[in-house]
Design brief:
The protein has about 240 residues and is an alpha/beta fold. The protein folds into 2 domains: about 5-80 and about 205-240, D-Maltodextrin-Binding Protein, domain 2, CATH 3.40.190; about 80-195, Periplasmic binding protein-like II (D-Maltodextrin-Binding Protein, domain 2). It contains 11 helices and 9 strands.
């Protein structure tokens, strides 16, 4: 029996990688998985974490591992976008577009931890784009924004249906900036949740990249080849991911 390959990946890929009919459902041998914020996982790899394939929510962390001689050149395998998760009753009293909701005074906004989690970096990019459109509201919007996931939060969120359901259901924030795939998963678990996407001129695209371990390339290279192939790509699409661009 060949050894089980080890995939370390962004937490936003856990649903797609481990659910029924997952991306690697029929891969032989069955991979072992470990998930976390991409930046945190990259630092653990640098500190000696065993791995064969690293799947990140951005290209910056894989590229850093490649520059350090630890990993192959990065390859984009999927795309995603930032969306706005909330309880449905928010839309009963507020506007029904994401930008206007973000700008509503009094609504608490949640985001992930910049640097540790690319989702937090993408949220900052979104704020920068909003500031270019209407700079007068930038400071107030950022003041209402709180880090609630990704490792930088004051109190970790525990919920049987996952962190992103919990952050809204437990009234930590009113609006949560999260990947569209995360929003889809959360809404499938809790019918009281919904989400809105951003218009094309504001939308922040996330490019997910993977690298394999150059110290033992056989297992990781085979995994990466499978990940960018037609079977895995079709399954990623069913979980809401876009194709590589």
């Amino acid at each position: 029996m060949p050894p089980a390959p080890k995939i370390v990946a962004a937490g936003s890929l856990k649903h797609a990688f481990t659910s029924d009919d997952s991306v690697f459902a029929d891969y032989v041998p069955d991979p072992d998985f470990e998930f976390g914020a991409s930046g945190t996982v990259a630092r653990r790899i640098e500190n000696g974490l065993p791995w064969d394939l690293f799947c990140s929510a951005n290209a910056a962390h894989p590229d850093r591992l490649h520059a350090a001689g630890l990993a192959s050149p990065s390859k984009i395998f999927a795309t995603n976008s930032l969306a706005l998760l909330m309880c449905r009753d928010i839309l009963d009293t507020g506007p029904d577009d994401a930008v206007s909701l973000l700008r509503m005074p009094g609504l608490r906004i949640g985001m992930s931890t910049p640097a540790a989690d690319p989702s937090g970096d993408y949220a900052l990019q979104l704020f920068d784009r909003l500031a270019q459109r209407a700079p007068q509201g930038d400071a107030e919007l950022r003041k209402r924004t709180h880090i609630v996931t990704g490792g930088g939060e004051d109190t970790p969120i525990v919920h049987p249906d996952g962190v992103y359901v919990g952050v809204v259901q437990q009234d930590r924030v009113d609006l949560m900036l999260a990947y569209r795939t995360i929003c889809l998963e959360a809404c499938s678990k809790e019918p009281n949740l919904t989400y809105l996407t951003f218009p094309p001129d504001i939308e922040v695209r996330a490019r997910f990249a993977a690298v394999f371990n150059v110290a033992s390339p056989e297992l990781g290279a085979a995994l990466l080849h499978y990940l960018v192939g037609p079977v895995a790509q079709a399954r990623l699409a069913r979980f809401g991911f876009g194709p590589p661009d």
